[in-house]
């Protein structure tokens, strides 16, 4: 092979496939041969036409050797005398580089039919090679990810060049026949086809490194090519190093904006300098922005672990926690799951360490118990003491209440408690009752609008009293607030507001000072029915729904190995508790419950200030109203219990609630299914 062909095989350039000269067919000198970039010609080598032998005068052996020579030339992008494209030369000169792989080649029909049939299998190599080699040359000066692909392709096809050189040597030594040539080059047909497919797809549009890797991964799934497998590993090395640095160090080094995790506070104050109030769940929730379109498809199953590994490393760094970091090289090899194991280990190390910090230093289990005891009002002594101290305040209009005074009363209530985190419980005055809050929440869910916080966008303030507006808040410090964050605690607050009203109504019914038994047996019976009904609803929420699930939550936290096990379990517990306490139609259920409770409070006022003339009539009126409102409440519960849209857990919860208030089913005024 001449020196130009040797240069091409070394990967230096394939531009020796040149344009057809405008002369009349005479061989022009190289000095006068003008090149046109962007097109390929298969007629001349180095500006000179190749000689054409008279095949009819050649023996079979000579034909075979000539065909082998032309094939080796053609497979390295050099024009061959007897292997021609199926398009006229003048049309090929107008084609763009990306269209070359559409050109088909054919062998001179004067060759033996057996030779042509054997060699035809390899002819696609010509177009595949030109496609790949031209891509390498076009991207050599590029600064994009395409240059990375071009370099990887150049390195990969070096073995192809070496094979062609070996075949040429064997040909010169008369040690190569056509059958051996086909056998040795056959594997490269699929290899170069896969590489040409990648370069063809890459030329269609400028894409990011993630999109390029995803496309290569998709092509490799189709071709299962060893050459493309090696190129994919080489091109992915840049991205995998970013993954390694993030998952094992918590450091983002992404000068070109290729990584799927973006630190939105990268130019702001370092997280290690933030105060505890500044460094909260909301800060870490908003700090990182995820661009999933920048993630290669083969890493999508590990996306969450990749993100959380780096995030938790930075959370631990902010908490001044010292730990031994991983130092393991990370690479991607198609069909090999080693990178999955490395990413899993990188994630589990900080996730396990962070959970240990929360459980040992943060006393996570104690905080979870506090939520049930105080926020959800399971601690009877605390609730009764709070109601006693705040009795006067709770009956006044909310506009006349002073939050600081109520907070002081709460602290007095908690003074005797030895709980080390009692100061995290705070009183809050809402501007609307819980029914209005639920209506607002339901509207927001339907319209799919995102809220920063429920308090900021609550409905218009209503004219309500203290007991309707009072709510408790639990404000744990960092890093406990990573798990017990405000969004979930606000959901629990909805349940707490319902429970507080039930306890408030019970407290009033049980505190009636008028001697009902001596005055009127019907009044005492009605009071007992009211009290028992409210009590059974409250006991259902606490004993049937909250306590069992909270116990399972505490057991799960005790056994958990990773912080996300706890986060997911707490989120699930809150979701279940809210759903089963407020049911799937919370507005209807809570409104019926509150209307019943308000009627019971009115009854207490009526009993405390009886008038002889109107007492009996009023008593019968309250009896009828209670029965009617209870019937409405039961209808709502039964509707949900029998609805096809209700899930099994909620249906069971409704049946439990109905069973708890079944004592009133003996009343002839109630109609229950």
Automatic annotation (TrEMBL):
Residues annotated as domain Gamma tubulin complex component protein N-terminal: 68-359
Biased segments, Basic and acidic residues type: 1-10
Organism: Drosophila albomicans
Biological-process GO terms, alphabetical: cytoplasmic microtubule organization; meiotic cell cycle; microtubule nucleation; mitotic cell cycle; spindle assembly
UniProt key word Cytoplasm: yes
Annotated GO MF terms: gamma-tubulin binding; microtubule minus-end binding
UniProtKB keywords: Cytoplasm, Cytoskeleton, Microtubule
UniProt subcellular location: Cytoplasm, Cytoskeleton, Microtubule organizing center
PANTHER family: GAMMA TUBULIN COMPLEX PROTEIN, GAMMA-TUBULIN COMPLEX COMPONENT 2
Lineage: Eukaryota, Metazoa, Ecdysozoa, Arthropoda, Hexapoda
Protein name listed in UniProt: Gamma-tubulin complex component
Domain Gamma tubulin complex component C-terminal intervals: 364-663
Coarse class of the protein's main subcellular location: cytoplasm
Region listing for Disordered, in residue ranges: 1-34
């Amino acid at each position: 092979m001449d020196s130009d062909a040797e240069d091409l095989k070394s990967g230096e350039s394939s531009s020796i496939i040149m344009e057809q000269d405008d002369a009349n067919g005479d061989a022009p000198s190289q000095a006068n041969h003008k090149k046109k970039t962007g097109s390929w010609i298969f007629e001349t080598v180095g500006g000179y036409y190749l000689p054409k032998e008279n095949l009819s005068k050649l023996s079979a052996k000579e034909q075979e050797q000539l065909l082998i020579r032309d094939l080796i030339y053609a497979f390295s992008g050099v024009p061959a005398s007897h292997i021609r494209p199926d398009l006229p030369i003048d049309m090929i000169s107008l084609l763009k580089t990306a269209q070359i792989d559409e050109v088909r080649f054919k062998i001179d029909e004067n060759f033996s039919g057996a030779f042509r049939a054997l060699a035809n299998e390899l002819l696609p190599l010509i177009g595949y090679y030109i496609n790949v080699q031209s891509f390498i040359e076009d991207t050599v000066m590029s600064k994009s990810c395409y240059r990375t692909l071009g370099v990887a392709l150049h390195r990969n096809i070096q073995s192809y060049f070496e094979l062609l050189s070996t075949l040429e040597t064997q040909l010169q030594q008369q040690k190569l026949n056509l059958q051996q040539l086909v056998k040795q080059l056959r594997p490269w047909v699929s290899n170069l086809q896969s590489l040409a497919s990648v370069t063809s797809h890459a030329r269609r549009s400028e894409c990011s490194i993630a999109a390029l890797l995803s496309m290569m991964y998709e092509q490799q799934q189709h071709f299962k090519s060893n050459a493309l497998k090696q190129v994919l590993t080489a091109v992915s090395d840049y991205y995998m190093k970013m993954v390694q640095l993030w998952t094992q160090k918590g450091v983002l080094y992404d000068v070109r904006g290729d990584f799927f995790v973006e630190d939105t506070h990268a130019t702001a104050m370092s997280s290690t300098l933030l105060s505890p109030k500044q460094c909260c769940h909301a800060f870490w929730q908003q700090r990182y922005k995820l661009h999933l379109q920048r993630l290669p498809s083969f890493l999508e199953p590990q996306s969450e672990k990749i993100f959380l590994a780096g995030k938790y490393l930075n959370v631990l760094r902010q908490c001044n926690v010292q730990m031994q970091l991983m130092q393991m090289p990370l690479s991607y090899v198609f069909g090999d799951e080693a990178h999955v194991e490395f990413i899993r280990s990188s994630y589990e190390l900080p996730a396990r360490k962070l959970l240990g910090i929360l459980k040992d230093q943060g006393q996570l289990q104690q905080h979870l118990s506090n939520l049930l005891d105080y926020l959800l009002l399971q601690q009877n002594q605390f609730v009764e003491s709070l109601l006693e101290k705040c009795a006067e305040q709770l009956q006044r209009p909310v506009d006349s209440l002073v939050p600081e005074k109520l907070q002081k009363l709460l602290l007095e209530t908690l003074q005797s408690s030895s709980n080390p985190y009692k100061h995290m419980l705070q009183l809050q005055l809402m501007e609307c009752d819980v029914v209005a809050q639920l209506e607002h929440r339901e509207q927001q869910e339907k319209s799919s609008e995102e809220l920063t916080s429920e308090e900021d966008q609550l409905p218009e303030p209503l004219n309500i009293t203290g007991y309707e507006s009072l709510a408790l808040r639990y404000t744990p410090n960092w890093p406990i607030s990573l798990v017990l964050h405000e969004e979930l605690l606000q959901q629990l607050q909805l349940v707490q507001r319902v429970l507080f009203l039930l306890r408030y109504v019970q407290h009033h019914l049980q505190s009636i000072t008028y001697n009902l038994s001596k005055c009127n047996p019907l009044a005492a019976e009605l009071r007992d029915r009211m009290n028992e009904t409210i009590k059974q609803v409250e006991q259902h929420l606490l004993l049937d729904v909250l306590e069992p699930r909270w116990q399972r939550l505490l057991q799960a936290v005790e056994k958990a190995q990773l912080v996300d096990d706890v986060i997911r379990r707490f989120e699930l517990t809150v979701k279940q508790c809210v759903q089963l306490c407020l049911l799937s139609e919370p507005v209807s259920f809570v409104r019926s419950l509150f209307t019943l409770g308000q009627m019971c409070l009115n009854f207490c006022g009526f009993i405390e200030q009886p008038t002889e003339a109107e007492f009996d009539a009023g008593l019968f009126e309250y009896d009828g109203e209670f029965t009617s409102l209870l019937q409405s409440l039961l209808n709502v519960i039964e509707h949900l219990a029998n609805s096809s849209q209700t899930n099994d857990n909620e249906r069971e919860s409704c049946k439990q609630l109905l069973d708890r208030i079944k004592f009133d089913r003996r009343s002839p005024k109630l109609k229950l299914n």
